Amino acid sequence: VVGRAATAQRVAAAFLRHPGCGVRPVGVVSDETSGGEGLPVLTTGEEVQRALIQNGVQDMLVVGPAARTEQGPLLRALGESGCAVWEVDADSPAYERADRLAGFACRRLPVGRLYGSAGKRLLDVLVSGVLLLMVSPVLLVCAIVLRIVDGPGVVFRQERIGKDGRPFTLLKFRTHRPVDAHEAATRWSVANEHEMSWFCRFLRRSSLDELLQLWNVFWGDMSLVGPRPERPYFVGQFSQTYPGYAARHRMRTGITGLAQIHGLRGDTSIEDRCRFDNAYIDNWSLWQDVCILLRTAAALVRPTGS
């Protein structure tokens, strides 16, 4: 059982009281030590691997979305080795169409298929590589015009949070100038369109300022399709405020996604974005990525900006 020590022990105890559910917990995986009674707490990869072999473990029960993010590498490794990974909701109402174990709502996470998909990465590399070749003249023209119209500093670099909570540097064409680094990192919107040059407004409304993120995709920091990446300051805030926000980091962040093709861009509901992003991840398929890319391409003929 993977999660916060106290909660994971409570869930494990419930399963042990109901052996008829077919699950017998043998240990708790947590970064915390447990001072009370209960199952052994495993805090290292070696301890987990030893417990798996000794007990013939076939299932991992993940308690809450935070544990999915914190133990992401472990869950990927276990899922790809054939261990079934289940998310257990210890406190909230049942998931829609959820299975139940010992009275808890649960659902199986497609960890091995989802996280280990070579097909998704291959699609990212091929499409981003081809697009970079095709749009390189456009990128060059945008850079030259932006330099002439709005001065030096054509490329905007900003730290964002990616897969498994790892930071990376996101690239965009600069369309605004924050007062300082603190404002850039902590202010929700630093762009005032009426203060922008005409070309900067054009870049934002046409989404051409996002084209440099194809380099992020090609390098592996991002994917073509996935939840949009956010700054560390807001990731911390939103993870505490919106259930499921942290779970978005199970997958590489993307240039576009299911939330974006449903109009959730810019200053829109974070709660709605969480719902769409996690629905995309839970039901991921390569065909879904292709459909989202096609819908994104179609939407570019009627751009609304970012």
Describe this structure in words.
The structure is a single chain. This protein is α/β, with parallel strands linked by helices. The protein has 2 domains: 5-115, Rossmann fold; 118-299, no CATH class. It is built from 13 helices and 10 strands. The chain has helices at 5-17, 45-55, 65-70, 72-80, 111-115, 118-150, 181-186, 198-206, 213-219, 232-241, 258-261, 270-282, 286-299; strands at 28-29, 41-42, 59-63, 84-89, 99-101, 104-109, 155-161, 167-173, 223-225, 254-256. The strands form 4 sheets. It has a 4-stranded mixed beta sheet. A two-stranded parallel sheet has the order 1-2. α6 runs antiparallel to α9. The longest helix is centred in the middle third of the chain and has 33 residues, at 118-150. It is elongated, with a radius of gyration of 22 Å. The mean pLDDT is 82.
